[in-house]
Automatic annotation (TrEMBL):
PANTHER family: LACTATE UTILIZATION PROTEIN C (PTHR43682). It comes from the Bacteria. Residues 90-185 form the LUD domain. SUPFAM superfamilies: NagB/RpiA/CoA transferase-like. This is Lactate utilization protein C. The lineage of its organism: Bacteria, Bacillati, Actinomycetota, Actinomycetes, Streptosporangiales. Coiled coil: none annotated. InterPro entries: FTHF_cligase-like_sf (IPR024185), LUD_dom (IPR003741), NagB/RpiA_transferase-like (IPR037171).
Length: 187
């Protein structure tokens, strides 16, 4: 029995015979309407990320320009013609990925590490992360994002470059992930 199975079995035993309780699920699921792309771009910019909003035809060119001459990790499933993935995680200059979904009101990008999104390590170890978000992947709220995600997949929620203000309230970037986040929103 795995640790997960053991924990779930212990929980099942603890609640065995307990009365079922109905949990109301009538909370608001949509937070914004209108220009979700513009709101998402504004919120991502608030986090000190570099943001580009481009037509799909121009987005691929910008991505190619940004990765040129860099040792970039290109995950399986990310189409980047003419650029080979750098094989060593610890000497890579950065990673280029897509995403599973993005949240407009929070400026959050969610990776489920499916095709084109790389592994968790690939997205957290390099100092630079270039993420391509298609306009159709942007939803207004966190509940809408959760509804699109598979809860059995590993999820990484990114709200700007890695940063902390734990020590004397001084902002330090790059502690828990990439110091630089660049987002290309493809419309």
């Amino acid at each position: 029995m795995s640790a997960r199975e053991e924990i779930l079995a212990r929980i099942a035993r603890a609640v065995a015979g307990a009365e079922d309780v109905e949990i109301p699920r009538d909370y608001r699921t949509e937070a914004a309407t209108g220009d979700l792309v513009g709101l998402f771009a504004e919120r991502v910019d608030d986090y000190r990320a570099v943001v580009h909003v481009l037509p799909a035809a121009e987005a691929a060119g910008l991505v190619a320009e940004r990765v040129a001459g860099r040792r970039m990790i290109v995950p399986d499933g990310f189409d980047l013609a003419g650029h080979e993935s750098w094989p060593d995680l610890h000497t890579a200059d950065g990673v280029v990925t897509g995403c599973a979904v993005a949240v407009a009101v929070t400026g959050t990008i969610v990776l489920d590490h499916g095709p084109g999104q790389g592994t968790r390590a690939q997205t957290l170890v390099p100092d630079y992360h270039l993420c391509v978000v298609r306009a159709g992947q942007i939803v207004s709220s966190v509940p809408e994002a959760i509804a699109r995600l598979d809860p059995s997949r590993p999820l990484t929620w990114i709200s700007g470059p890695s940063a902390t203000s734990d020590i004397e309230l001084s902002r330090v970037e790059g502690v828990h992930g990439p110091r630089t986040l660049e987002v290309v929103i493809s419309t």
